[in-house]
Amino acid sequence: MLASSIGADHVHAILESLERTGAHLAEIKWDGLRGLTRIEAGRVVELRGRPSKPHQPGADQRHRFPEIIEALPAILKDHKSIVLDGEIGLLDPTGSMMEFHAVQQRPQTDRDGITLDAIRNPMTYVVFDILEVNGVSTMSHSYEARHALLRKILRPAPRVQFSEVTPRVVDLYERMVRIGGEGIMVKNRHAPYEPCKPGQKSKQWLKAKAGNHRDNLDVVGLTQGTGAREDLGSLILAKKTERGWQYHGRAGSGITHTQIAAILAELSTAQRETCPLVETPEIRKPLRCWIEPGIVKADVAWERAVAEDPRHPRVKGLSIRGLTIQ
Fold first, then answer.
1. Is residue 224 classed exposed, middle or buried when 0-12, 13-18 and 19+ CB atoms within 10 A define those classes?
2. Which structural domains are found in the chain, ordered by start?
3. How many Cα atoms sit within 13 Å of 193 on the Cβ side?
4. pTM beyond 0.85
């Protein structure tokens, strides 16, 4: 199932209304890679991502997450087979958020790279639904019954945990806002599981994002662009800390042609040979140049930041040497 979104303008009023009905439960919105898992006879035979085309299964992800594949069979108590729905990601120290960039950066095919990343950044599979037990579908059961069954027949294991649910919808949302989380999922406790086509949303699952963030960041480098934006792909962003300049992601959306021209005109005096950051980040795009901090600043909005890496960043404003560039 895919969730429908609650509009940001009235999110509190809607969540309060849903909580008052007593018909809904809330859980954390995990920001990782969706994973449908089938375990048979003590072996993980499927771990598939979300399908991108109708009537086709998602891509098999077993080879990318060996630490999870090793752990999953241990969750079964007395049952031969099971199908689960959940999210794969790198949990932060609080266990309440996933670092979205980490699962994106897990290699796709490089076996040595996958093995090394599994050691350095071990992922966790957070289970939030159960679709089949011993060949019998549970999808017609209510969400509340499915979650109770999940807790009854499975045991937690290293790298596998259950998504906690609560009837206190507003409290959980406000907690996620305070800690900078992705948001929450609100699910009808009486609803069955609805298999959806790719892109199709269910009205039984609602998501409420915890809000956008905005900050004024220094531009410390540029990536090479392509096509009509060949001269500039994105801005490499940083923020000053006690340790020095820390990487804060990249932003390419929202930059105007006038702003690009102004940045390029400044390169003769702003460009530098070495990376000004405390640690050189993995940019994953061809680097055009590094820029001296303090010259170009960008007002950037994003959904949320994890590990100093804004998600869906967009440039809202830009200044060079204190002069605003439209």
1. middle
2. 3-209 (3.30.470.30), 213-325 (2.40.50.140)
3. 20
4. no
